[in-house]
Amino acid sequence: MNITEIENKKIAVLLSGGVDSSVVVYEFARLGLHPDCFYIKIGPEEEEEWDCSSEEDLEMATAVAHKYDCKLEVIDCHREYWDQVTKYTMDKVRAGLTPNPDVMCNRLIKFGAFDEKRGHDYDLIATGHYAQTEIDNMGLKWLCTSPDPVKDQTDFLAQITDWQLRKALFPIGHYMKDEVRVIAEREHLVNAKRKDSQGICFLGKINYNDYIRRYLGEQPGDVIELETGKRIGEHKGLWFHTIGQRKGMGFGGGPWFVVKKDVAQNILYVSHGYDPETAYKQDFAVCDFHWLTTQVSVVNVTFKIRHTPEYHPATLEWTGEHAFIIHSKEKIHGVAPGQFCVIYDENHHRCLGSGEITV
Length: 359
Description:
By secondary structure, this protein is of the alpha/beta class. It contains eight helices and 17 strands. It is globular and about 70 Å long. It has helices at residues 3-6, 19-29, 54-67, 78-94, 101-117, 162-167, 177-186, 208-216; strands at 11-14, 36-41, 72-76, 124-126, 132-135, 141-144, 168-169, 221-225, 231-235, 256-262, 267-272, 280-291, 300-304, 312-320, 323-333, 340-344, 350-357. A hairpin with a 5-residue loop joins strand 16 (340-344) and strand 17 (350-357).
């Protein structure tokens, strides 16, 4: 975090109760700053047993804000989350696609609904994401990767808009996760040893399949072996399965691998073995590509299709202003329609944007 970047700026910190955003507050405090902190409240329609972590989160956030003499305000974005992010997710899974709620949560909630409610009063919105930014000699702001390849979260930020990126600040993005833990323990933060949250953004310990079942229910259908056409069992709904899945199938005679969905016929196609050729793709189409900073002429890139430390080299064959075919230099496992393909420069330093995989 560059002091010139924040000088004379009004800053809001999104404080979740986790260790990362708490160290963000510390980073400001060591510079003698006491930014306003905000806890974004998200939860199901009514208080339920599966909304179990938010009370503890708020307690942690309150303790950290108090420790550094910062104001903390709770912002209720419940309605926006369930109307926008949940609708996006359910529309996609109903169509047999593989959406990413976390990606849209950043765009629609953290840098969207929050900005509409309170963020518009601030010059910068700081979060605990593992990402960095840089300004080029033209004055353009770019989203850049974290030095921690395992924790890097640029893929989750690849759908935010240009104005959201200009307001975004990532004070811990230059750290490794272990370094953040060391700071938290040294500063005796209340959540220093707290485990990282898992699962869908804001939903805490809610299981993803339970989340889907709540809105779409179950729709049983046949499970067919792709190579033989043999029926091997019944699924409870195509939306509970993703392309490339090889765990939690529950069918005998395995291992089985999900390779295809027929939404019209409600059939799940699987292949036998851990590594069938049908589970891999080297060329696939991407549509509705969203440029983060500005459109650039690019052919040689690196990319991700899921949250992993690896970046895959590829070339792009542009088929339209916001569409291309990606030609990966290696076969990629589990490419699924609806996933975001996140594009980086050749050195996977700058994140250029993302689009949705179509085939």
